[in-house]
Structure formats: structure tokens, C-alpha cells
Design a protein that fits this description.
The chain is an all-alpha fold.
């Protein structure tokens, strides 16, 4: 549990310091994420329905939404 405590502390510190520059999406630790590289494929191809893959999809949506806001302001 020490690792988990450090993770939450680090995430909290990053959000405090960088504020809205930190994405909300969290990519969880996941066995399938670790297995994909050893099979030579991206996790989105190896197992698109695992929690890690779903989080990457969510991150992509979050990133593109932010990018569209920034792009439309320019």
C-alpha cells in the first residue's frame, strides 16, 4: 500500500502545482497493458476492452476536447 499512497500523493501534488494542465483521466495499472509490448502490439489492438485500453480511449477524448478548445481560441 505504500506505493499506492505515494501514487495518490504524487497525483495530488501534480494537480496542486500544475492545476488545469494535468489531465483528469487516470490510466490504471493493468496486466494487459504490461502484456501487450511482449506480444509486439499496442494495447488497443491486444485487448481493446481492458480497463487500461478504455482509459487510453478516454484520455484521447479528453485530449482532443482540450485541443479543440485551444484551437478554436486561436
Amino acid at each position: 500500500m505504500i506505493g499506492e499512497t505515494n501514487y495518490h500523493h504524487s497525483r495530488s501534488e501534480a494537480r496542486t502545482y500544475f492545476k488545469d494542465k494535468v489531465y483528469q483521466t487516470v490510466i490504471p495499472r493493468n496486466v494487459r497493458l504490461s502484456e501487450a509490448p511482449s506480444h509486439g502490439v499496442p494495447v488497443l489492438i491486444y485487448d481493446k476492452s481492458c480497463p487500461g485500453s478504455k482509459s487510453y480511449y478516454n484520455f484521447t477524448d479528453e485530449f482532443m476536447t482540450q485541443e479543440n478548445k485551444i484551437g478554436s481560441a486561436a
